[in-house]
Amino acid sequence: MNCTNANPVTIVMIEDDEGHARLIERNIRRAGVTNDIVAIASGNEAFEYLLGEDKTGAVSAKRALLILLDLNLPDMSGVDILQKIKTNPHLKRSPVVVLTTTDDEREIQRCYDLGANVYITKPVNYESFANAIRQLGLFVAVMQVPVAE
Questions:
Q1: SS3 assignment for the chain
Q2: 1 partner at 20 to 30 Å CA-CA among 65, 78, 83, 105?
Q3: Mean pLDDT calculated for residue range 114-125
């Protein structure tokens, strides 16, 4: 049986701090991950990309996405974005890695309750970050993207 995915995984990085975004991308590349990275700097831009013009998320139905999400965005809370991703039928299977400066236990638990796959506090230990990305990348690589009926 062939388990390769016709859709290569796209990493969607939702991070408003340009310095952090460059650092994250550099470390993803250093980890040997060569997938496309879509850098998004705001919540509204993230919704536009993930949900499409019609706001249904159908645009992402056949995409294989790995989402890196900062919780502190200028225009909305990353928690709201996480909730929207995990309740959308086209996006809910996409793995989400929360990358944020908040190490509040309640916030961490809330993110896991909403469906976050990994929660990493900045400044990031990039060895464990790279490892998490590699593991999720392997998971997504074998993940079957459902074909729309």
A1: CCCCCCCCCEEEEECCCHHHHHHHHHHHHHCCCCCCEEEECCHHHHHHHHHCCCCCCHHHCCCCEEEEECCECCCCEHHHHHHHHHHCCCCCCCCEEEEECCCCHHHHHHHHHHCCCEEEECCCCHHHHHHHHHHHHHHHHHCCCCCCC
A2: 65
A3: 84
Cα 145 off chain centre by: 16
**pLDDT tens digit sequence for 122-148:** 776 767 777 777 776 665 555 544 444
What interhelical angle do 43-51 and 78-87 show, nearest 10?
Answer: 10
Neighbours of 85 (CB within 10 A): 28
At how many degrees (to 10) do helices 126-142 and 18-30 cross?
Answer: 70
10-142 CATH, one of 3.40.50.2300, 2.60.40.420, 3.40.50.880, 2.60.40.1180? 3.40.50.2300
User: Phi-psi bin for 59: left (phi > 0), alpha (psi -120 to 50), beta?
Assistant: alpha
